[in-house]
Amino acid sequence: MKRRACAAAAAMLAPLTALITLTAFTAATTAHAQAAQHQIVIDAYGDSTTLGISCSEGRCAPQAQNAVAYLQDKLQMHFGERVHVVNYGVGGTMATQLRDGTGNRRAGPTAGLPWRERLAASPAQIVLINYGINEVMQDQTPEQFYAAQSALVQTARALGKEPVLETSNPMPDNRLNARLASMVAVTRRVAAEQHVPLVDQFAYISSLPDWKTLMSDGAHPKPGLYRLKAEQDAEVVEPLVRRLLDGTL
């Protein structure tokens, strides 16, 4: 009788055990999916000041201490390792090259693709865009820059990304800086027209006393200024990350 009772109890418990196992598996799967959804990827596109070049004793090279790295550190202090900022800065490039896929093809497997295809292949939810200096150096017109930046923003929005525009840091040469100011005005215009978050590095850095001493050469900040740039980036990007994690963006 005891054996029969045990067998009957086991038979009755089997469906319950299966249900508990299935429920646990479903919960784990759901939790994993939710965790994956709450991974925030930020792509940072731009020129050598995004890449993080600094110069010392006549040598210029990318530095580990750059604005993108500092930004990731700051975001991870608040949100943990759920947030990753990927540096796609390429020295000497312009917004038109990013749009057309004609920049440095060594900067990642999708670097030679036009912007729409490249961005469609990216898991990033937020896209930082920082250009202007090489437009001055390559004698582009503000109109060309306006067309390129407008296209970058519109395409990002169409693909469900949140674009963030960033003005260039100023240049110590007064003549070049005056020309750069016209490119900065374009970035501000696109941000206003497209209702895009803006990090106005040009205005912020220009307001700093003796800011030229924070530059390593005629275009590239020293690591200390890269850190200050990252703080400005974080003021704009942190609320976007928080809204994504809360599911309200």
Automatic annotation (TrEMBL):
Residue ranges occupied by any SGNH hydrolase-type esterase domain in the UniProt entry: 44-227
InterPro entries assigned: Ester_Hydrolysis_Enzymes, SGNH_hydro, SGNH_hydro_sf
Species assigned in the record: Paraburkholderia graminis (strain ATCC 700544 / DSM 17151 / LMG 18924 / NCIMB 13744 / C4D1M)
UniProt keyword annotations, A-Z: Signal
GO molecular function, one term: hydrolase activity, acting on ester bonds
Superkingdom per UniProt: Bacteria
Signal peptide from the UniProt entry: 1-33
Entries under PANTHER family matching the protein: THIOESTERASE 1/PROTEASE 1/LYSOPHOSPHOLIPASE L1 (PTHR30383)
Annotated protein name in UniProt: Lipolytic protein G-D-S-L family
Pfam families: Lipase_GDSL_2
